[in-house]
């Protein structure tokens, strides 16, 4: 069992773009970065990469913060916002221009389109051809009047960018495969790949754990980092999460805001446990606490293969955590959710007694609420459901006899269970023939916990009232 190897110099970060909610893939990236820092006794930083002004919204920022809070992923520094660091990016771009690591490019969109079309016709890789790249002895075109240039990074033409990836092992990409990346737009706004490099360097990030869709960005970022004289962090690129059908995770699979899982009744510790296993393992352990995750987590057990999201497995994990949860927490959460659904628990059995009965039947807090609601909501019209049951020989007579016997019966599980058994025996019925209409009369549905326990929880007066109301409606 690995133990924490304390290194307070280790600094990880989670850097989402606020162009949407915090989904499962982002939450897992945040979790791994958080767990790695906590395992080593280092620092975990939250950075909001909000330079995409057209798509970034305050609502998306809040959704990210809410998701992090719900999951309990506390950060040591931040949140930092890139739009508040524009001066730093501008200064660094000026430095690169002055040192010859960047240059202005006046190509219009039409120029770039024609460039790509010509390359396509020639069977070449479509890329920027270096028209405005300064080289010794090269005569550059005359800058067009009234056109603001973009700023491009002068990527090395030879050699390779190599790094030993925490997850995938050694990776090397030739510089010939990379073109000169735009690092500032015409309006002067710096681009994602440039801001990331400056931030990671100035925030002293030592380990970058992120999705493997960023692998193509990494060599570009390393080259920029070298140009500004920064230290290269350790990169780890984790595979994506796939849906149950093996396709890219989408909304139909569960790629929704993590806070929606709160709405659907999942526990944050269960979600942490489940997310951790989507690409990381500690032997065959399926269930582990947050503290155990921190103790065990290191990069050697990160999977190189894509993980598949399994809603049934998530529900199984959540059911386990619900059964282990503090009864006071379950009581509070169910009380809140019942109130939100319009159900009052003031009249009816004690909610803690109801939860003790129905907890085994629920995998989420929403299911727990719905099971508990049976004891606090009106039955409604059950005539259509009940009549076919009463048409069977002996059922109505058995119900009336049982109803009468309840008036003087001892009010305990044993006594009520015995009364049900003696009633079905007297009328030569099987258990479901009596239990099913009793369930409908008392709760309005056909599937409930053991009917004798339901009756005991309702109490004599409420049971009498519901039976009389239902049987009177079909008399």
Automatic annotation (TrEMBL):
- Name the UniProt record assigns to this protein: Glutamate--tRNA ligase
* Molecular function as annotated in GO: ligase activity
Explain the purpose of this protein.
Catalyzes the attachment of glutamate to tRNA(Glu) in a two-step reaction: glutamate is first activated by ATP to form Glu-AMP and then transferred to the acceptor end of tRNA(Glu).
All copies of the Glutamyl/glutaminyl-tRNA synthetase class Ib catalytic domain together span 10-316
Compartments annotated for it: namely: Cytoplasm
Residues forming the motif 'KMSKS' region are: 248-252
What is the reaction catalyzed?
tRNA(Glu) + L-glutamate + ATP = L-glutamyl-tRNA(Glu) + AMP + diphosphate
Q: Where is this region: Disordered?
A: 124-145
Matching entries from Pfam families are given as: Anticodon_2 (PF19269), tRNA-synt_1c (PF00749)
How does it associate, per the subunit comment? Monomer.
Segments forming domain Aminoacyl-tRNA synthetase class I anticodon-binding: 338-470
Q: What residue intervals hold the motif 'HIGH' region?
A: 16-26
InterPro entries according to UniProt: aa-tRNA-synth_I_cd-bd, aa-tRNA-synth_I_codon-bd_sub2, aa-tRNA-synth_I_CS, aa_tRNA-synth_I_cd-bd_sf, Glu-tRNA-ligase_bac/mito, Glu/Gln-tRNA-synth, Glu/Gln-tRNA-synth_Ib_cat-dom, GluQ/Sye
Domain of life of the source? Bacteria
Per the UniProt record, which EC number(s) apply here?
6.1.1.17
Q: State where ATP binds.
A: 251
Query: Is-annotated flag, keyword Cytoplasm?
Result: yes
Q: Any idea which UniProt keywords this protein has?
A: Aminoacyl-tRNA synthetase, ATP-binding, Cytoplasm, Ligase, Nucleotide-binding, Protein biosynthesis
> Biased-composition ranges for Basic and acidic residues?
124-136
């Amino acid at each position: 069992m690995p133990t924490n190897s304390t290194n307070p110099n280790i600094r990880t970060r989670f850097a989402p773009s606020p162009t949407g909610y915090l989904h499962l893939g982002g939450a897992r990236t945040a979790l791994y970065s958080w767990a790695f820092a906590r395992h080593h006794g280092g620092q975990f930083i939250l950075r909001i990469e909000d330079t995409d002004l057209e798509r970034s919204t305050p609502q998306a920022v809040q959704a990210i913060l809410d998701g992090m809070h719900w999951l309990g992923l506390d950060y040591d520094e931040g949140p930092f916002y890139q739009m508040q660091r524009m001066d730093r990016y501008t200064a660094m771009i000026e430095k690169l221009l002055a040192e010859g690591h960047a240059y202005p490019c006046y190509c219009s969109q039409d120029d770039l389109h024609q460039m790509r079309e010509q390359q396509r016709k020639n069977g070449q890789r479509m890329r920027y051809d270096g028209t405005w790249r300064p080289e010794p002895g090269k005569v550059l075109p005359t800058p067009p009047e009234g056109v603001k240039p973009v700023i491009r990074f002068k990527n090395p033409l030879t050699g390779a960018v190599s790094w030993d990836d925490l997850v995938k092992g050694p990776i090397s990409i030739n510089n010939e495969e990379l073109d000169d990346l735009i690092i500032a737009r015409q309006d002067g706004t710096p681009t994602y790949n440039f801001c990331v490099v400056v931030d990671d360097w100035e925030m002293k990030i030592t380990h970058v754990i992120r999705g493997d869709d960023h692998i193509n960005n990494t060599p570009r970022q390393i080259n920029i980092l070298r140009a500004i004289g920064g230290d290269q962090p350790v990169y780890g690129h984790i595979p994506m999460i796939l849906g149950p059908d093996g396709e890219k995770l989408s909304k139909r699979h569960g790629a929704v805001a993590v806070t929606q899982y709160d709405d659907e009744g999942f526990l944050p510790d269960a979600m942490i446990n489940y997310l951790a296993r989507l690409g990381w393992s500690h032997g065959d352990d399926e269930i582990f606490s947050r503290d155990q995750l921190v103790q065990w987590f290191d990069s050697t057990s990160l999977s190189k293969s894509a993980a598949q999201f399994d809603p049934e497995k998530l529900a199984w994990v959540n059911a386990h955590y619900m059964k282990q949860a503090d009864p006071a927490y379950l009581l509070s959460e169910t009380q809140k959710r019942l109130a939100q659904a319009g159900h009052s628990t003031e009249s009816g059995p004690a909610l803690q007694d109801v939860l003790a009965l129905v907890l085994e039947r629920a995998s989420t807090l929403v299911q727990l609420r719905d099971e508990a609601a049976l004891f606090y909501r009106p039955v409604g019209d059950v005539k259509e459901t009940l009549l076919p049951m009463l048409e069977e020989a002996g059922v109505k007579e058995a119900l009336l006899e049982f109803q009468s016997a309840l008036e003087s019966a001892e009010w305990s599980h044993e006594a009520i269970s015995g009364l049900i058994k003696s009633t079905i025996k007297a009328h030569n019925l099987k258990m479901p023939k009596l239990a099913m209409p009793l369930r409908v009369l008392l709760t309005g549905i056909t599937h409930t916990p053991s009917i004798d326990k339901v009756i005991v929880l309702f109490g004599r007066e409420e049971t009498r009232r519901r039976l009389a109301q239902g049987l009177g409606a079909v008399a």
